[in-house]
Design brief:
This protein is of the alpha/beta class and 613 residues long. It has 27 helices and 14 strands.
Amino acid sequence: MEEHGPRRKLTTILSADCAGYSRLMRADEEGTFRVLQSCLELIARTIGEHEGRVFGGAGDSVVAEFPSPVEAVRAAGEIQKAIAALGAGLVEDRRMRFRIGINLGDVIVEGDNLIGDGVNVAARLQGLAEPGGICISAGVHEQVKNKLTLAWDDLGDQSVKNIAEPVRAFRTRAGVPGPNRAPTAKTTARRPLLLAGTGLLAALASIALIASYSGWPSRPPQCGRASIAVLPFANLSGDPAQEYFSDGTTEDVTAALGRFSDLAVTAHAAAMPYKGKPVRPEEISRDLGVCYILTGSVRRSGEKFLVTAELTDTHDGRHLDSYSEGGDIKDLFDARNQLTLGVVGKLAIRIEDLERRRALKKPTANLDAYDLVLRGRDLYARNTRSANNDARELYEKAIQLDPTYASAYAALGKTYKAAAFSGWTEFIDDAFVQAERLARRSIELDKDSAEAHRLLGDVYSYRRQFDLAVSELGWAIELNPSDAEGYVYRGGLVASLGRSADAIADFEIAKALDPVLSFTSPGFGFAFYLQHRYEDAVTTFAQGAHAAPHDIIIRAGLAASYGQLGRKPEAAQAAADVLRTWPFFKVDQFITNFQSEQDRALIAEGLHKAGLE
C-alpha cells in the first residue's frame, strides 16, 4: 500500500532581514521601530505586486514565496532600491539596510506555512548577502541570468549551517542604487542663476532676472544622459479661461516623463517663463541645460480635445518627431500616455516595468474631478490666502466626485500645509494634523504618489521627527527622480541637521533640474556657510534677499556671512534689515533651527560679528 507523505511543491523562497538591527535599536529604539515598520510595509507591498506571498518572519525579518524566480529577483531589486531611497539622507550609521536571499527549492506545505531545506537555504543565502544586496542560489541564477540585467558575482560553493551539501551562490548589489545620483554633466557644466526666496512663487516673481544674467556657458550641455524640458503647451481653445487646462496638461506630461530614471526632466516651474514666447532651442539649451525640448498645443472644445507636440534637438534645432492625439475628453489620459511613450521611445530611454506602470497610471476615471484639480492647482500657485482657500474648496469637490482620487487628497493636504507655513491660520498644529491625514489617505490610494510622500516629509519635519522626514523625502525622490522640489526640501532639511555636504549635493541636482527653485531655499546658503564657503553663501543669500526682501532667514544668513568675511558695512546693513523685519530677533532663538551644536556655534559667531544679539 502506497504511503502518503506531506504535501510538497517546488517554489521560490525570498528571505530578508535587517542588517545591524540591534545596533540601530540601541541608538534610537522608537525611531528605529517606526522606520522598520515603514520598511516592512514596503517589503510586503512590493512582494504582493510581484505575485508573491509573505508566510513567515518575525521582528525584523520577512519570508515569502513566489511562483517565479524572475519575479522574486525583480521584487528584491525594487525593495533594495526603495529602502536605499528611504535612508539616503540619513547619516551612515542610522541607515537601515536589508540582506535578501533567494532560493528555488522543494518545500513542505503545512497549511499556509512552508518548511524544509528550500526555506532554510534561502535564509543561509540571506546571510551571505551584503547589507543592501541580494544573494541567490544557482537554480535561481539559471532562471534569471538571461532575463534580467543584473551583474552577479559567482561565490562558488558555500558551506552553510545545517545544510548537508554546499550551496553555490551568486551575489549582487548592482541594479539597486539609492537615489543620491552624482551630479550629471548638466549640473557641473554651467553656473546657474542664483535666486532664492521663501517659496516657488517668490522665485517666479523674480524670473525677469534670468534675461539679464550673463553667467551662462556658451557651449551646449553634454548629452551623455538624455535631458528634456517640456515647454508650456499653447492654449488654442480661443478661450483664455482654458489656460489652466493647457498648463495642467503640460504639468502632467512633465510629471509622467519625470518618472523615468534615465531621463532628466526640467521642472515644470522652470519651463513656465517660456510660456507664450518664441522658441529658440539654443537659448533654452543654454538657460536650462537640456538636450531636447518638447513643445506643443492643446485645443479643447466642449467634450473634444486635441493635443499636438513636437520634439526638438536643442543642439542643432532639428525636429526629431511630432505627435498628435485627440478625441473625446474621456480619452485624455490615454493621449498623454501615448505622447509620453512616444518621447521616451524616440530618445531610446531604457524603461523599467515599474517606471512604466507609475508613469502611465491614470489619476482618476472622473474627468470632472480631474478638471477641478487642474483649476485648484492654478489657484494654489497664486500663493495667497484667498486663492489657497478657493483651491481647497475645489479639491474637496473633486474628492466628493471621486473619493479614490489620490492626487486630490495630496493637493488638499498641501493647502493645509501652506496655511500653516504662511501664517494663514492660528491653528497650526491642527493644520498639520489635517495635512498628515490627507497625505496618508493619498498614499493608501496610490503608494507611488511622490507629492504625498513629500507632504508627509514636511509634516514629520515640522514635528521634528527628522529621520522619518528624511526617509519620506527620499522616497518621494525615488518615485520621481526629476522632482526638483524633493531635492530642495531634503537639502534644506539635511542642512539644518548638520549634513551640509549632503545638502549641497542635493541642491546641485535640484539646480540641474530647476535653475530657479533650488535657490528659493535658505538651506542652500546655509549649506555653503557651514562649509565655511562664505563668499558662495553671500552670493546665494544676496540673490535670495533681492528676490524675497522680507525673508528673515535669508537676511540673517546674509548678515552672518558678511560677519564671517569681516565686511563690516555690509554686515551692519544686513543686520539692520533683519531687525527692521523682525524687531525681536534673538540669536539664541534663531540658531535652534539647527540641530548640531557645532553648526549653532558657527552661525551664532557670524551673527554676533554682524552686531546681532
